[in-house]
Design brief:
It is built from ten helices and ten strands. With 302 residues, the protein is of the alpha+beta class. It is elongated.
């Protein structure tokens, strides 16, 4: 952007090299905040847009006071170095870039930054190029308001962030309400991981579960045909769904657990075991039994 600006200056002045005042004066009609710095980094000329910009954002002079609507004489490099902590990273980058441009080490420098000093959050592109005058050190610096260019992208990012946070909250809510717990087995079908289990009354604590197969968790072990079919699924590496087994807790009370799982494999396709979820459905089984009793209070009568 600064290179375009200097091309415009050269056109205005013909083949002559413009003076510091000429650069700023001839750019008054542009939507750029333009300042010319001398070899010490001090502002020697500005356009009207920069004056308004300086007043709004409170550029400070070397004494630390707000200039009386006149930024001339402000050591701009030192001003950047004195910036508050919240703007330190951006200010340091600008100060270092300016030093290199003024010294001739860089042909151009640009830096995009966000300012929240104004009444609303705005984005600017800072640019600096050496003075277009042979043998004279200094720089032409500009601030271009690019907020309208950035707003669609910024809005999309904010919307995406809001959606991600909402999704996280939704998942957290589901997790808080979920009664399921998660497990994982090794290739021999022994449980190696247990997550989310919060029902110690079932007697399925980690130390009682790890190293055992699902069949070994059932007490008493009934319905061998059910487990034979389950073993067939495991050996065939098929997913299984809604396998129900019973368990008697330490108090002699019966519980019913519903289990579903699927096989998982490593990167080269080797079988690693099963992963799945378990759910205590004791209350549902009891409710179904009560409904059956109400429908047929004497199931054994002929």
């Amino acid at each position: 952007m600064t290179a375009v600006m200097l091309d415009m200056v050269a056109t205005i002045k013909g083949s002559a090299y413009p003076s510091a005042d000429g650069i700023a004066h001839n750019l008054n009609g542009l939507p750029l905040h333009v300042a010319v710095l001398d070899q010490t980094g001090t502002i020697v000329s500005v356009n009207e847009a920069w004056r308004r910009f300086a007043t709004i954002t409170h550029f400070l002079d070397s004494s630390g006071e707000v200039p009386d609507e006149d930024p001339l004489g402000v050591d701009y490099v030192s001003f950047c170095e004195r910036e508050s902590v919240e703007f330190r990273r951006s200010a340091d980058a600008v100060a270092n870039g300016l030093r290199h441009v003024i010294s001739g080490a860089l042909a151009t420098f640009s830096f995009e930054y966000c300012s929240e000093r104004l009444t609303e959050r705005r984005f600017f592109l800072f640019s600096a190029t050496p003075l277009p005058q042979p043998g004279r050190r200094g720089a032409v610096v500009t601030h271009l308001d690019i907020t309208q260019l950035r707003q669609p992208a910024e809005s999309a990012l904010l919307q995406a962030a809001d959606a991600a946070r909402a999704s996280e909250r939704r998942l957290d809510d589901f997790a808080d309400l979920a009664l399921e717990w998660f497990w994982e087995t090794d290739p021999a079908y022994r449980v190696t991981a247990l997550e989310g289990y919060t029902e110690p009354s079932l007697g399925l604590e980690r130390e009682r579960t790890l190293g055992r197969t699902l069949r070994e968790l059932e007490t008493p072990r009934d319905d061998p045909e059910k487990w034979r079919r389950h073993q067939d699924d495991l050996d065939a590496r098929r997913p299984f769904h809604n396998l129900v087994y019973s368990r008697i807790d330490d108090n002699g009370d019966s519980h019913y657990i519903r289990v579903s799982g699927k096989p998982y494999f490593d990167a080269v396709g080797a079988f690693m075991g099963y992963r799945g979820v378990s759910l205590d459905i004791t209350a549902q089984v009891a409710a179904a039994e009560r409904r059956a009793e109400r429908l047929d209070p004497n199931p054994g009568a002929s």
